[in-house]
Amino acid sequence: MTPFGEVVALPGRGLMMGNRGVLHDEHRRIVRYAQVRRWIACVTEFRGRKRVVMTPNRYTELFFLDEATAFAAGHRPCAECRNADYKRFCAIWEACHGGPARAVDIDRVLDAQRRERRHKRTHRAPIGDLPDGTFVVLAGAAWLLLGAEALAWSDRGYTERRPRPSAGEVDVLTPPAIVAVFRRGYQPAVHPTAGP
């Protein structure tokens, strides 16, 4: 999965797995963009469970470089395999957005913010106002904002660094409701290549 929410076949191995329902057919071809409103991001190992990737009639395993990428694509933490992250996310969500932070309510908001049919929905914002962990579009590519830098996304890690722009408006890939959660202190996990 890319930060644009695209399902693509790439050789890199990510740190997280996700789910949007059954997206493939019996020949392991992707035939739909999403099946359910509940888009979750999971750990790749949990209680010794093993899966055959793209088993017919079972959910399609999606892989993300890291949690920041999963959030940019519009996924939220899984309540089972990432229970502590899920609870922390929900508590901050409730502080930001009010009302109960039930999964069904979060999924409804994210579904409206992450896509318009099969196309990624973005929003414009001043780059200087965006918190760490947010993905933006710079020169047509996905860049992660982290500290004083912007990092270029690839399926194998962050491949290029540049000083984080301080002025101007950009297209933001991370849904606005998640950006608000980042502003309130949720720090998404990032791939080791994002480190110094």
In short:
The protein is built from four helices and twelve strands. It has 196 residues and is an alpha+beta fold.
**Helix and strand element order:** EEEHEHHEEEEEEEEH
Span from first to last CA?
24 Å
How many strand elements?
12
Count of separate DSSP helical elements: 4
Mean pLDDT: 92
Q: How many individual domains?
A: 1
Low-confidence stretches: none
User: Describe the biggest sheet?
Assistant: 6 strands, antiparallel
Residue share in helices?
10-25%
Structural class: alpha+beta
Trace the largest sheet across and list its strands.
7-12-8-9-10-11
- Large-scale geometry: globular
Topology:
Elements lengths: L15 E4 L20 E4 L18 E3 L2 H7 L2 E2 L5 H15 L5 H12 E2 L2 E2 L2 E4 L8 E4 L2 E6 L2 E4 L7 E4 L5 E4 L3 H8 L13
Parallel strand pairs: 2-4
Antiparallel strand pairs: 1-2, 1-3, 5-6, 7-12, 8-9, 8-12, 9-10, 10-11
What does this structure look like?
This protein is α+β, with helices and mostly antiparallel strands and 196 residues long. The chain has one domain. It is 21% helix and 22% strand. It has four helices and twelve strands, in the order βββαβααββββββββα. The protein has helices spanning 67-73, 83-97, 103-114, 176-183, and strands at 16-19, 40-43, 62-64, 76-77, 115-116, 119-120, 123-126, 135-138, 141-146, 149-152, 160-163, 169-172. A six-stranded antiparallel β-sheet has the order 7-12-8-9-10-11. A four-stranded mixed β-sheet has the order 3-1-2-4. A two-stranded antiparallel sheet has the order 5-6. Strand 5 and strand 6 form a beta hairpin. Helix 2 (83-97) crosses helix 4. The protein is globular, with a radius of gyration of 16 Å. The model has no long low-confidence stretch (mean pLDDT 92).
